[in-house]
Amino acid sequence: MDIYPQVMQDRASWTSEGDHARPVFDSIIRVARHLIPGTHVGICILDSDDHLTTLTGTDPLVFALDEMQSAADEGPSITAVREGHTVIIDDAESEHRWSGFISHAVNLGLRWYLGVPIGFDDRSLGCLNLYSRAHMHLDSDHLAHAQVFAAQASVALNQGRRENDLIAALRSSRTIGTAIGLTMQQHNLNSQEAFDHLAARSRMTNLNLREVAARLVQEANDVRQATATATATATATAEPSDDDAPVAAWCPTLELAIDGDCHD
Fold this sequence. Notes:
The chain has eight helices and five strands. It is of the alpha+beta class. The chain folds into two domains: 5-161, Beta-Lactamase (2-Layer Sandwich); 169-226, Arc Repressor Mutant, subunit A. A hairpin with a 5-residue loop joins strand 1 (39-46) and strand 2. The longest helix has 48 residues, at 140-187. The model is unreliable at 1-18 and 247-264 (pLDDT under 50).
């Protein structure tokens, strides 16, 4: 069970936030692998469906182990994210946690693991993963390096979130402006009166102003599309075809045809 229920509603945008931060993430994992030799490093998040999604990794092993955890819905990375604390596996072959994952991971060669959660606002969104096929000793330097890298990844993810919020705000502002213009036109109002009209609809429908504006704009687009379709259909129907063209009467003597008869 997700111990951060309020986080679930925000997760739909996390993957795109990760896309914004990907260059930073790529740099982090390269340096982490250099400073902690023998590790396979990656950064993952739990997506909107509560599945583990790998944002970046140093090699295929990272993606394979993350995917195995996602399929099993358990594993050290998922625990690190959901519970918000560092997870360590000193010896994977003797590990008894995550029974649906660990035996398959050992078969892939996993022997050691360190996972540090990443996030912001006291919420864990993802994890910095360090996997190793060698038996390693976790010293204080390794742990300190991993914590610094996780903090840097958190800052990058938070920056991506801020950029997404700004884009969403700009789009919302444009939508509300369009809705005000439509309301002015439809009801012959000035801009302040149109805004007040939308605000009243917001209160009556128990929807926020952005949703009211978006619905109004969508309705106007639907009407415009329906009108364009009807006009195109009417135009196509009105155009005469070759089969409808009048056929001239012909008489060998070139005399006028009266009542549809030809006369010699």
